[in-house]
Amino acid sequence: MRLREPWPAARSRQRRREFATLFGGVPRGGLGRTLEVGGGDGFFASLLLAQCGSLLSTDRYPREHASESTGVKRLTCDATQLPFTDGAFDFVVSSNVLAHIRERSLACREMTRCLGTGGLMIHITPSRTWKLLQLLFYYPHVLMGAIDLLLDFVFGRIRRPDRKLHERWSDTRLPSLRRIVTGLLPTIQGEYSGHLAEWRGFGVSAWRRQFETAGLEVCRVAALPLYSGYGFGFERLRRIGERLGLSAHHAFILARRGERPATLRWFAEPGGT
Fold it and tell me: I want to staple 67 with a disulfide (CB 3.0 to 4.6 A). Which of 42, 142, 170, 243 is the partner?
């Protein structure tokens, strides 16, 4: 029994909404040779595959449990040292990756180097609105998580009397005091010095400067759907927020400076700048 939708299910639905908003106008195979940087669990690649001529997904760490998609090649490498020739790809993309790279400028230059003439690059990044929601809903999230845990334990014990509370955790020990205290404070999501630095870094102007320094031109900034980040629904509030122009993430649609790729026409402008 739970009082809200489990986060993995809520996040998967949200990622599908983001993908449809951004890539809904791209024809099958239209993106050509595609490089995904920071593939993670493979979910984004599974959505993107049909729009690519070929798709190579990279990640810094091996992902043993990444979802498998036929046709997606995987490679373990660092975004700051991509093992590809200059101009090897027609399309380069990342989703919620750059904030987790400490040497962002170097990573952006590497991706620019790998982008061919007339190629397009898209980076999906968290917004300042998302950061504020992360802080605003953190304690409701902790409280609801505790209630969910208690309800799951109580009802689980009714169904299965031998069930142990510690089975709700990732190991067989009860949580330590350190883990409990750590969980009382919201964590910094990316590679930033603090929450204020992260909020500043998530601004459109900050990302724009990052990309322009790497020799890229921001062709368009698309506002992606709004969500809380913790599985809370609030559908009516979400729709109102989106009408007001609020977005949890931005998609920066980029090209080499001075170029206007033909593929840019597939990315509609509603909600963008």
Answer: 42
